[in-house]
Design a protein that fits this description.
By secondary structure, the protein is α/β, with parallel strands linked by helices. The protein has two domains: 3-7 and 255-376, Aspartate Aminotransferase, domain 1 (Alpha-Beta Complex); 21-112 and 119-253, Aspartate Aminotransferase, domain 2, CATH 3.40.640.10. The chain has 13 helices and twelve strands. The chain has helices at 3-6, 18-21, 25-38, 45-58, 69-79, 97-104, 149-159, 211-220, 242-251, 255-272, 303-312, 342-350, 362-376, and strands spanning 62-66, 87-90, 108-111, 134-138, 162-166, 174-175, 178-179, 186-190, 204-208, 287-288, 294-297, 351-354. Helix 3 (25-38) runs antiparallel to helix 9 and helix 5 (69-79) packs across helix 6 (97-104). The longest helix has 18 residues, at 255-272.
Length: 377
């Protein structure tokens, strides 16, 4: 009898938000009721309170709440003055928003291949991609592990470029002891419900230690307006809802505990899967990963078969990401061809993300490990 058949009663969804939100339901409802009672739904006092608390948590001078992680990226690019025809260097192995935010400003995303072990942008390939049109570098801290920020910053400083950190999956991630989001000029975070710190819809954050950039970021989220109804700049409507700020205020004190739960589960997988022909996540010894995903590589063309095997055992998985951005139809005009970014293309064929959320039970974790072992037997 296979392991998958041995435990038919154990179900392991890819994500189960009820385990996190359930215990906080009363506190969150009370916080939301306060917003409803005061009717201050836009830029209410909870927004400023959350911004102060999350800035303290991240160790940054300024935190600016916005409407989504995507809008954080877009507003950050607008704040530094990205114009049509400018180039922004980023990774093709990431969520769509990293590059689409550049394209929405009629600028050009320039894709640089990844390190095959960490899935993050390879800093050794960045410099050769720089042209006279390059304005910024946009590294992504993918799956909760920091990109290699020291060499990225060194290159950016040498060429006079701005570094915008896409930290959508990385709130609390550390690079050599420093939390990401305050290492480059601007950090961008997402509070989408699936993130380690998730709200009840869409919300995001921009962070910076630069007073002038902070001022521009705040202007960009309110149509570039200063004072009211006077517009020196064209911004957007990128405000965070007061209701979402209220939810995040309740959740923020629990974040470190949730990180440690994910790290504990990752350590279990690392041990349990050590002898199998899959490649476990590589975390640099000086990095602190928050494991927004636990993503393995399944070589030999067996990824989809393993995923189906896990599904038949009641185990949810996901593929982040099945098509690298340079191969997406909407970016065909950029002129990339198959084989141009081989590490990203190989990763798209092999990656599989396993359930990692902190509320997983030991029985669920063991069921995942046993089912994968059964597949290889």
């Amino acid at each position: 009898m296979s392991q998958a058949q041995a435990k038919p009663h154990v179900k392991v969804p890819m994500l189960d938000l009820s385990g996190q939100n359930g215990p906080l339901q009363v506190a969150i409802a009370k916080a939301m009721d306060e917003v409803i009672r005061t009717n201050h739904f836009v830029m209410g006092p909870q927004v400023e309170t959350f911004e102060k608390q999350v800035a303290q948590y991240l160790g940054v001078k300024h935190a600016i709440g916005v409407s989504s992680g995507t809008d954080a990226l877009l507003a950050a690019l607008m704040a530094i003055g990205i114009q049509p025809g400018d180039e922004v260097i980023t990774t093709p192995f990431t969520f769509f928003a990293s590059a689409s935010s550049v394209a929405r400003l009629n600028a050009r995303p320039v894709f640089v291949d990844i390190e095959p072990d960490t899935f993050n942008i390879d800093p050794q390939l960045i410099e050769e991609a720089i042209t006279k049109k390059t304005r910024a570098i946009l590294p992504v801290h993918l799956f909760g592990q920091s990109a290699e920020m020291d060499p990225i910053l060194e290159i950016a400083n040498r060429h006079g470029l701005t570094v915008i950190e896409d930290a959508a999956q990385a709130i609390g991630t550390k690079y050599k002891g420093r939390k990401v989001g305050g290492i480059g000029q601007i950090g961008c975070f997402s509070f989408y419900p699936t993130k380690n710190l998730g709200c009840f819809g869409d919300a995001g954050l921009m962070t910076t230690n630069d007073d002038e950039l902070a001022h521009m970021c705040r202007l960009m989220r309110i149509h570039g307006m200063e004072p009211r109804y006077f517009h020196k700049y064209i911004g957007g409507n990128f405000r965070i809802d007061t209701l979402q700020a209220a939810v995040l205020l309740v959740k923020l004190p629990h974040l470190e505990k949730w990180h440690e739960g994910r790290r504990r589960n990752a350590a279990f997988y690392d041990r349990a899967l050590a002898d199998l022909p899959i490649v476990r996540p590589a975390v640099r010894p000086y990095n602190y990963s928050i494991y927004n995903q636990y993503t393995v590589r399944v070589p030999g063309g067996k990824r989809d078969a393993l995923r189906q095997h896990l599904s038949s055992a009641g185990i949810g998985t996901d593929i982040y990401y099945p098509v690298p951005l340079h191969a997406q139809e909407c970016f065909a005009h950029l002129g990339y061809r198959e084989g141009d970014l081989p590490h990203s293309e190989a990763a798209a064929r092999e990656v599989l993300s396993l359930p990692i959320y902190p509320e997983l039970t030991q029985e669920q974790l063991q069921h995942v490990a046993d089912t994968i072992k059964g597949f290889y037997r």
